[in-house]
Every structure is written in C-alpha cells, then in structure tokens.
Design brief:
The complex is a heterodimer of chains A (224) and B (277). Chain A is built from 11 helices and no strands. Chain A has helices at residues 3-10, 25-30, 37-63, 68-77, 82-102, 106-114, 121-131, 136-159, 163-172, 174-194, 205-215. In chain A, helix 7 (121-131) crosses helix 8 (136-159). In chain A, 60% of the residues are buried. Chain B contains 1 helix and 18 strands. The chains are: A mainly alpha (224), B mainly beta (277). The A-B interface holds A 24, 28, 31-34, 39, 42-51, 73-74, 76-78, 80-83, 85, 176, 196-198, 200-210, 212-213, 215-216 and B 5, 7, 171, 173, 179-187, 192-195, 197-202, 204, 207, 224, 226, 230, 232, 237, 241-243, 245-248, 253, 255-257. Chain B: It is found in: Cytoplasm.
Chain lengths: 224, 277
C-alpha cells in the first residue's frame, strides 16, 4: 500500500499537460450546453460514465500488468475520431515524461521506446501507477477523477464559474466515481487473462462529433 | 448454433428466459460463374427472409418483419456470412421495435456478420426503436477477412413518438484480420447513469452510425468531414449532426445524433454519398 504516490499522480499540478485540455468542455460551452454549475455537473456525469469509464478501465488494465501495446490498440478501437486519438497520444507523451522523472521503470522506458509519439494517456497512466507501486484501483481512480476535474477546471476559466461551485460539482460526483473506479478496476484485472472484450467501451456520440468541430476552430483556448 | 457473444451482458439476464428464441441464418457463396448463391436462407419466428432481385454477382435479401419483436424475454439472433468473393446486401422492410415483455425479463438480439476475402456485405437494416418499458441487450459482432468489404448502418431511436425510452445496451465489435478495428458500447434509458446529458446526446433521441471498411480505405488520405448541422457553413443545432472520420485501419465511421429517425437518416445518407464507390 502506497497511498501517498496516488496523491502525487492525481494532483492537478502533476506536470502532465492536462491543464491545456478541456475534455470537450470548451466546445460544450460554445454550443450553450454548459452554462452554469448544474449543466457542468450533467456534462461531467455523462463524460464520466462514457469516456471516463473507458479511460479508467484502460488505466486499471495497464496497472494490472496488461500488455501496454495491446491496450494502446484497444484504446484506438474505442476512440473513433482522430482529434481525440491525437489528444490522447499528446497527453500520453507528456504524462510519460513526468512519470519517468517521478518513477523511473523499465516498463515505462519500454513503452516510451515503442510509442515515441505517445501512447494513449490512460495506458501511460496505468503503467506509471504500476511503477509507483499503486494498485489497478488507484489507477482507475486517477483516470476517472482526471476525466471530470479537467472539464470542471476548464469551465472555471471559460465561464468565470465560481471555483467553489466547480469544486462542489466534483464533490457531488464522488459517489459515481467510487462505483465507477471499482467497476473499472474489476474489468482491468480480468484483461490480462480474458482480453479486450471485458474492458468498458462506452461511447458518447456528441463528445466525438464536437471534438472534431472544436479541432477545426481557428482560435481556441484549449487543445481539446 | 455458436454461443451468442456475452461481452456486455450482465449476469442478471437469465440464460433460459421464457420468451421466443429465433435465429435467422444467411449464407452467401459465389459459384463458378461469379453468381452469388444463397445455400442457406433460413428465417424463423419474427424473421421472414425474402430474396429480391435477379441472380447476379450480388444477392439481395430483405428481412420482412413478420411480427413485433423483440419482446422482453426473447432471444433473437441473425447470422449472416458472405464467403470469399461473394456479395450480400441485407435490408429490412420495417423498423425493429423493442417492446416490454410479460415477465419483465430483458430481451437479447445478437447479430453476427462474417465476411471472407474479396467478399462484400452490406448490412442496412431499418432503425431499432426502444419503446417505453423495453429492456434490450444487443450485440453486433463482425469478423472481416483482410480484403473483405463491409458497409454497416446502425440506427437507434429512443422511444416512439411522445413516449419515454426503454433501456438499451448495445455493443458493436468489428474485428478485421484478427485485430479489433472498432469496439463501442452504447447504453441509454432508465437505469443508465449519465445517458441523457450534454456529453452524450444533448437532448437528441436518435443516434446512429455508418461504418465502411475495405481495402480502398487503406492508402487513401481520409479526411474528417462534419455532417448536417455540425458543418461550419450550416451551423444548426436543431437538426441532425454528425462526423465522418477515419478509424485506425482501412475504415471510416460516421457518427450522428438527431432529434428523430428521419433527420438521423438524412445525416447518415450525407455520409454515404461521400463514400468512394
């Protein structure tokens, strides 16, 4: 048990580049789908149970010792638009640099060598968690929490939303996060022996559509 | 019959539900003259299969809805195979309506498509409509040989006009040459957390996909195309919207949402028109 390492990994100040991404919130604000704390919460709940669940499953599977290159392919099959695949790989590369500085390991080095342009971020996160001595459940928590804390933080900047309100949104999602992380960890533990079909594949059509719309904007505050 | 895939099914779905069990089987095989024959064309229960058109390089089959299905507790399956070199075009005469059953059990509907080298399968059914109170677990599992071609359309409508939706869990898995090309799960309706949110549907009640796979997508530069109201020149949030984008592999996928089935089809038709061939 190594709880302190989880706080380092899940800290919003961990230098893995997440602050440059809004997780689809910038596009949702522009479309009028996020206007206040209540609509932010709905967006985050929807994202958590789709993209967040998939990310948590991948991270848990990698932390459980699943083959990271196979999981990188699994992530591609669950990410049907290029804008989101590119964002996930860019974030993965940045996560890799920070993780190798924090917890140098042969597994991280091997993944970095095999995917020099970046593996999908949740896969890197899972291998990093493993290097830090964390469990698949820890990795699932970190992936799922980041999946909603990113949009919540971005909306504070995009809408000048009160940071107290944004934090309250995250607190209200804690029950969902607990259940989802447990489910993702259970699925991740089965991956090494049972293969990709046990991992969540939940999709959110609007996140895919608006990610490509957003990528075509000439000027934007966030990279995704 | 090979066992139905159980990838997403919860243990709560009973293995021996009291409902209807029916499997439609279609096998397309090309003969020495390049004509696609149908040595197996076997419908039962809700599936009546009609061959349409004249014998030729492509065999066309229409699934004629003989009754309302699936009801809760039913276990339905379709198995269609286009062997090497064959071409099979499958459509349906009407929408499939998932309805509640007498027992409250979930229904299952498993589609298994297999396409050999040089073969082509078009799977173009009408929409699946999830009536209020229904509970359906659907899987669509596709196995493609390295030079197989596939065009697959999937449309889901959440509730009939003016009613709430039933519950739908659907998983689409497409494997090509032993590698998973696409793996997607959709879950909507009562009991599914976060389904009716601005991240997933934004209030829309129809969603769909059009998938095209084939060697012609191998080398071509596939660019992303915004569809319907998502296109910048037609920025319109009231109609359907979508995106057509390349997958990791020789394939493109259109993803669309719309207020209703009609406007959904318009977006998917726009995607279909921009496909090669």
């Amino acid at each position: 048990m190594n709880r302190a390492a989880l706080m380092v990994l899940a800290d919003g100040r961990f230098p893995a580049g997440g602050h440059a991404h809004s997780g689809g919130a910038e596009a949702a604000v522009a479309a009028g789908r996020i206007t206040d704390a209540a609509s932010l919460e709905a967006f985050c709940r929807g994202r958590l149970h789709t993209a967040g669940l998939v990310a948590a499953g991948l991270a848990a599977a990698a932390a459980a010792g699943g083959d990271p290159l196979a999981l990188d392919d699994v992530a591609d099959a669950r990410t049907p638009v290029p804008a989101l695949r590119a964002a996930a790989r860019r974030l993965g590369r940045q996560m890799m640099r920070a993780a190798r500085a924090a917890w140098p390991s042969a597994e991280l080095a091997a993944l970095a060598a095999a995917r020099p342009r970046g593996a999908h971020q949740p896969v890197v996160l899972g291998v990093a968690a493993r290097a830090a001595g964390l469990t698949p459940l820890d990795a699932a928590y970190a992936a799922a929490y980041e999946n909603v804390s990113g949009p919540a933080t971005a909306v504070v900047r995009l809408l000048s939303l009160d940071p107290f309100d944004a934090t309250a949104v995250l607190a209200r999602l804690a029950g969902d996060l607990d259940r989802l992380a447990a489910d993702a960890a259970a699925a991740g533990a089965r991956f090494p022996t049972e293969g990709p079909h046990v991992l969540p594949a939940a999709s959110a059509p609007l996140l895919d559509i608006t990610a490509e719309q957003h990528a075509a904007w000439p000027v934007r505050l966030f990279a995704s | 019959m090979s066992p139905a895939p159980t990838t997403t099914r919860p243990s709560g779905v009973p293995a021996t539900a009291a409902g209807l069990r029916a499997t439609a089987r279609i096998l397309a095989r090309t003969d020495a003259h390049g004509i696609t024959r149908l040595p197996v064309l076997d419908g039962s229960g809700p599936f009546a299969l009609r061959r349409t058109g004249f014998p030729g390089p492509q065999a066309r089959v229409c699934m004629v809805g003989a009754m309302s299905a699936p009801l809760g507790g039913d276990r339905l399956a379709v198995e269609a195979t286009a062997e090497a070199g064959a071409s099979l075009h499958l459509t349906a005469s009407a929408a499939t309506v998932a309805l509640p059953g007498r027992t409250g059990d979930a229904a299952t509907y498993d589609v298994r498509l297999t396409v050999g080298d040089g073969a082509r399968l078009d799977w173009l059914p009408e929409p699946l409509i999830c009536a209020e109170g229904s509970d359906l677990w659907m899987t669509t599992t596709v196995e493609l040989a390295p030079t197989a071609r596939l065009v697959l359309r999937e449309e889901q409508v959440l509730g009939r006009s003016g009613e709430h939706t039933g519950t739908l869990h659907s998983r689409l898995t497409v494997r090509r040459a032993g590698r998973t090309l696409l793996d997607q799960e959709t879950a909507y309706g009562p009991g599914v957390p976060g389904w009716d949110t601005s991240a997933a549907l934004g209030g829309h009640r129809a969603l769909g996909q059009l998938l095209a796979v084939g060697p012609e997508f191998e080398d071509a530069e596939q660019r992303v195309r915004l569809l319907g109201g998502a296109a910048p020149e037609r920025r319109d949030a009231t109609g359907g919207q979508g995106v057509l984008a390349p997958l990791t592999g020789p394939a493109v996928l259109a993803t669309a949402v719309a207020p209703d089935a009609l406007r959904l089809r318009a977006v998917l038709d726009e995607a279909a028109r921009s496909l090669p061939g």
